[in-house]
Design goal:
The chain is built from 3 helices and 4 strands. It has about 200 residues and is α+β, with helices and mostly antiparallel strands. It folds into 2 domains: about 70 residues; about 80 residues, General secretion pathway protein M, EpsM (Gyrase A, domain 2, 2-Layer Sandwich). It has a 4-stranded antiparallel beta sheet with strand order 1-2-4-3, with helices on one face. The chain is rod-shaped.
Length: about 200
């Protein structure tokens, strides 16, 4: 008869080896470490390049803004010069009117003006008169007006009982002349200090 053994034969049991959590070849650790360092270095390099480019871009933007500011400052200076010129012209606008008015008011009888020239504060007057006393009266009247603190007779000539004369006067507003006189009065005169024994 045939016998069939349905039971499994006893085999010696094999002991299972405990495996480590990760089995890695010894050179692979160094490769992974190198790759991690390379990736970190690449990341740091990319961050540094981004920072450099953004700084460079900000500098370019600031330079463009600086150019705009400089252009605006130049325009401001130009406008300020124009405003100053307009204000100065407005202030000086009334001076010729006052000058002609004072000359007209102080012109005595028998004195005729034939020429007048103004260069800054210097006024040159040319004219004719029937006598030297009328010219002297004209000079005195101009000085008394306060607008002409200095009047000089430059030349005079007589022909056919007519005196031809030339005057040179300094035109100054009485307010300005008063301020200058007050400032001069406040200045100490050299040598007028207390006497030393």
């Amino acid at each position: 008869m045939i016998r069939v053994n349905l039971l499994a034969p006893e085999r010696p049991t094999k002991t299972k080896k405990t495996r480590s959590a990760v089995s890695v070849a010894p050179g692979a650790v160094q490769v992974y470490l190198f790759l991690a360092l390379f990736a970190g270095g690449a990341l740091v390099l990319c961050a540094a390049l981004w920072w450099y480019e953004s700084t460079k871009l900000k500098k370019l933007e600031l330079q463009a803004i600086k150019v705009q500011v400089d252009a605006l400052e130049a325009k401001r200076r130009t406008f300020q010069q124009k405003v100053d010129l307009i204000e100065r012209l407005k202030a000086e606008q009334s001076a010729p009117v006052h000058m002609l008015d004072e000359i007209s008011k102080n012109l005595p009888d028998f004195v005729w003006l034939t020429s007048m020239d103004q260069t800054g504060p210097i006024v040159k007057l040319g004219g004719q008169s029937s006598g030297l006393t009328s010219v002297a009266d004209f000079i005195s009247a101009l000085q008394r007006s306060g607008w002409f603190p200095l009047v000089d007779l430059v030349s005079s000539a007589e022909a056919n009982n007519i005196i031809t004369f030339n005057l040179q006067a300094t035109f100054k507003s009485p307010e300005v002349a008063a301020k200058e006189a007050a400032a001069a009065a406040r200045q100490p005169i050299p040598g007028s200090g207390p006497m030393k024994p």
